[in-house]
Automatic annotation (TrEMBL):
Belongs to the binding-protein-dependent transport system permease family. This is Protein lplB. It is a multi-pass membrane protein. Residues 71-286 form the ABC transmembrane type-1 domain. It is found in: Cell membrane. The chain crosses the membrane at residues 12-38, 75-96, 108-128, 172-191, 212-233, 267-290. Keywords: Cell membrane, Membrane, Transmembrane, Transmembrane helix, Transport. It comes from the Bacteria. Signal peptide: none annotated. The lineage of its organism: Bacteria, Bacillati, Bacillota, Bacilli, Bacillales. It holds the Pfam family BPD_transp_1.
């Protein structure tokens, strides 16, 4: 019986094998590199020849004057992205649910979903042109209204807002489809019963649609907790400049500069390990909350 079952499932295991090999090569093997955080690492001596220094670079990380500011930037930007990325798709899904013509609804879904498939290299170039203080369309409209132009990508106050707004613009279409799927799964008889009780469209939304969406809303909110330290490396790297480091620099870009530009491999690895440990704890808590409040589990 076992031998027959194994022969029957062997093609399925063979299909999984290439994926497992890629995961081992690109996800698990690089984890041995965390030893660099505890060494005075040089590429010439490698892992085995570099001297062991213990927690020296973790102490240096916390003693740096800009570390706490970068941590705050990361948490602030990521939290604002999570909050906006949670609220906007729900509102858009509720509005699209009220559109009766199917071709209009499909057209809007396609239009708002399209930026999700574009890389930040492309969207970054688009934003640089749109927000240009001299030739950008946004500042052209501000000038036409009699207002002063704003250097959005070079202003300390505006740069985090640009990150949040542009991230929502890119991703809210995908999350909107998730909520539309949740709305589609609501039993139509609940709406019929609400109409029989005299509920208008607003009350149907309030007492039928939103409660029906609640499980997926709780799930999406709890799973997003694990991204508190993920403020969007590619987006920030494409858009930021030294003039906005004070409010726009995040842990990932700090690691990039320390490791690949300043060649401080040990310090960069220590910062990356700190971020990974905190993220692991937050992800574990988020999945526990998802199981506790949304009955969602991976295994």
């Amino acid at each position: 019986m076992i031998s027959f079952k194994w022969r029957r499932e062997l093609p399925l295991h063979a299909m999984i094998l290439p994926g497992l090999v890629l995961v081992l090569i690109f996800s698990y093997m690089p984890m041995f590199g965390i030893v660099i955080a505890f060494q005075k690492f040089t590429p010439f001596h490698g892992w085995f020849g570099s001297p062991w220094v213990g927690l020296k670079y973790f102490e240096e990380m916390f003693n740096r004057p800009d570390t706490m500011q970068v941590v705050w930037n990361t948490i602030y930007i990521a939290t604002m992205k999570i909050a906006a990325g949670f609220i906007v798709p729900i509102l858009v899904a509720l509005l699209l649910n009220e559109v009766n013509r199917a071709w209009i609804k499909r057209g809007i879904q396609t239009f708002i979903y399209l930026p999700h498939f574009m890389s930040w290299v492309i969207l970054g170039g688009v934003l640089v042109d749109i927000l240009s203080p001299s030739e950008g369309i946004v500042n052209a409209l501000l000038k036409a209204a009699g207002l002063k132009p704003i250097f959005f990508l070079g202003n300390l106050d505006w740069f985090p807002r640009v990150l949040v707004i542009s991230d929502v613009w890119k991703e809210f279409g995908f999350n909107t489809i998730v909520y539309l799927a949740a709305i589609a799964g609501i039993n139509p008889t609940l709406y019929e019963a609400a109409i029989m009780d005299g509920a208008n469209r607003w009350k149907q939304t309030l007492h039928v649609t939103l409660p029906g969406m609640l499980p997926i809303m709780v799930l999406m909110a709890t799973l997003s907790l694990g991204n508190v330290l993920n403020a969007g490396f590619e987006q920030v790297l494409v858009l930021y400049s030294p003039s906005v480091y004070q409010t726009g620099d995040i842990l990932d870009t700090m690691i990039y500069r320390m490791g690949l530009q300043s060649f401080q491999y040990s310090l960069a690895t220590a910062i990356g390990l700190f971020k990974s440990v905190v993220s692991f704890i937050l992800i574990s808590v988020s999945y526990w909350l998802a199981y506790r409040f949304a009955n969602y589990r991976i295994f």
